[in-house]
Amino acid sequence: MAGYVELFNLGKTYETPKGPAVIVESFDLNIAKGEFVTLLGHSGCGKSTVLTMVAGLNPITNGGVVIAGREIAGPGPDRGVVFQAPCLLPWMTAFQNVMLGVERVFPKASKQERMATVEYYMELVGLGDSMHKPPAELSLGMQQRVGLARAFAVAPKMLLLDEPFGMLDSLTRMELQEVLGAILQRDEKTAFMVTHDVDEALFLADRIVMMTNGPRARVGEVLESPFERPRRRSDVLAHPEYYQLRERMIRFLKDQDRHEEETAA
Length: 265
Description:
Strand content: 15-25%
Distance between the termini: 40 Å
Oligomer: single chain
Order of helices and strands: EEEHEEEHHHEHEHEEHH
CATH architecture of the largest domain: 3-Layer(aba) Sandwich
């Protein structure tokens, strides 16, 4: 069944001195409009490779990616990307960093309209009082809030998140997970997020796609989330299926480790 976002037979091969190295192979996934899908797997299994191919930042070796009926051929404003590091321009304020993308994507909008857009998303991520500060005066968590605002402000068809909270302490990570979930629901955005955090995947996702270890990584197992939206962390943790799903995900990851050890032996 076709989806709003389609990854079909997606593959990535790198040429090495020892010959071709197949990192991702025959990766198939459909994502519905407005759905939040997380891609879970061990570090180095190829999760970020899949995401950067969807973002158009990494050339696709095999297969392709279709978004809203159009096959991608490179990066574009239809995809907002948030990386693990905020990647802000240090000589600009937080507001100016967000405005940079808005000006490029909406060149025909008035100055007032562009300013209103930036201010709106800065307020949504909780930076209303800090939007005119340079990155050096912001904590890492605040800088990542700027990254979220920057991605949402250009009105992308889908949001791509590559372990966006991986560098943050646990309290800040949980706060930003809730900020992200609230904005995605408000904007009804389609989202695809890479993570290796089981609890993060369970709290945020509508579906969790578990990826096999590389090389030749592919979709291993897919779990449907039973948690209603809007979500409160206490309700998710109290849900009767929460720990069953969590155990199933951990078992899958352990099985991947066991398979890798057996293959190496």
